[in-house]
Hints:
mainly alpha
Amino acid sequence: MFKYDSxxxxxxxxxxxxxxxxxxxxxxxxxxxxxxxxxxxxxxENVLNVMRTSVAEGxxxxxxxxxxxxxxxxxxxxxxxxxxxxxxxxxxxxALTKALAVSQTNACMxxxxxxxxxxxxxxxxxxxxxxxxxRNIPDHDVIMALFTASAVGMVxxxxxxxxxxxxxxxAECGAASAMAAAAIVEMCGGTPQMCADACAIALKNIxxxxxxxxxxxxEIPCIKRNAAGVGNALVAAEMALAGIESAIPADxxxxxxxxxxxxxxxxxxxxxxxxxxxxxxxxxLCQKVFGCNQ
Length: 294
């Protein structure tokens, strides 16, 4: 039974079995839960369906969060892509659109998949759905890649944190970005080691990111950080698939993330007492929503 405390161990097990990370994770999880692999697979298929629905709901141009702070941005991004106005191409633009859409669904109290958290819920869905649609990857491969993503998330949770209140946004959007990068790599035919390298690169790129929600709500800057997170995942996956290795192994990067989170001020860990939350505009928005000062 895996303890999910080391990506290196998971990669070694996959290589020894001549299997993908998702195959060994699915097999092991079925044994631990004493259920069939088909049953777990069907559960993950349901997860993918919820992800798709959360994207569709977030594209509503008229939907706004209860606070009134956010809404409509995913539709704007979608229109820019459809009209060929975005500067980074169709795939990148569609990934940003989906990340914004899912995050907006969350802000509007819609149903999302916390992957690994509600605050970072747009990153993994936008990554796997965008790449699968643009590369005609079958749902089976997407569903399996979600098992790889879940394993990466479990290792990060066990060795560092996936909670903004404990590790800052690097723990939420960072973990989600690493999970998405590994999933993309597997979907595109990368090796288990490439998945680990993508995870490491994604986490390194977002190391130290603070959690500073304006008015204490998971909206500003969280929604746009989901878009940045999927962009980071695409960057990491591209490099790993090109054969670029991470100089620092994934497990050591996760260890470093834990140390950075521990050193981070409490004001920068979901308390809304630092960063963007205490800017003049941040305070004004809090006053607008709650009628009181932070």
